Amino acid sequence: FLVDAAQGAGCIDIDVEEMNIDMLAFSGHKGLLGPQGTGGLYIGERIGSLDECRIRPLLAGGTGSNSREMDQPISLPEGFESGTLNTPGLAGLSAGIDHLLSLGVYRIREHKQKMVRLLLDGLKRMKDRVDLLTPASARENSGIVAFNIKGMDSTEVADRLDQESGIAVRGGLHCAPMAHCVLGTLETGAVRVSFGTYNTGEDVLSLLDALRRIAGRP
């Protein structure tokens, strides 16, 4: 089966063999600390080569490993790597992964969960003005909290946090409209706070102060 690890890679320990993961997709610019435009797809041995499975790349070309052939190679990883690879981006991704491994994935997750708990505790005290969309427990959280201020569009909240307090969050549908259909937030979107390795408790308290001002709550 396929696991979407876009938000979890770099924060949650992942063992593809122990978890019986056949394929794992990840983005490079989030928890792995790489540049935008990087990412990867792990393909396990059970999937096999291209001539043994029904998976085919959407794009083909750049058969540099065997330029005499007109068709995409069937061997891996070349079979899924069309065109010229983003070598500078991958070098940056490698440096990001080296850095997070030096810090320790467990320590990063522990720190992010601490930030999540602090923010959740503050938002729960504003429950008369805030709709919390993230599960109340930080235990399985990868460092992300989603919520809305009642009666306000998420993009308005995000813009005000930026302009009035210099705090960067993301509002809107987060490239996942179907998820917002399930949450019932397709019209308003959601405010998403994504914690990084170097966020502090003071950052969280500043965010809560700014949200109280925006929500009109003392």
Which properties best describe this structure?
5 helices; 2 domains; alpha+beta; three-stranded antiparallel beta sheet; Aspartate Aminotransferase, domain 1; Aspartate Aminotransferase, domain 2; elongated; 218 residues; 33% helix; single chain
Task: Explain this structure.
This protein has 218 residues and is α+β, with helices and mostly antiparallel strands. The chain folds into 2 domains: 102 residues, 3-Layer(aba) Sandwich (Aspartate Aminotransferase, domain 2); 111 residues, Aspartate Aminotransferase, domain 1. The protein is built from 5 helices and 6 strands; from the N terminus they run βββααββααβα. Strands 1-2-3 form a 3-stranded mixed β-sheet, with no helix packed on it. A 3-stranded antiparallel β-sheet has the order 4-5-6. α2 runs parallel beside α5.
CATH topology of the largest domain: Aspartate Aminotransferase, domain 1
Taken in chain order, the helices and strands follow as EEEHHEEHHEH
C-alpha termini separation: 48 Å
According to CATH, what is the class of the largest domain? Alpha Beta
CATH architecture of the largest domain: Alpha-Beta Complex
Total number of helices? 5
Summarize the structure.
The protein has 218 residues and is an alpha+beta fold.
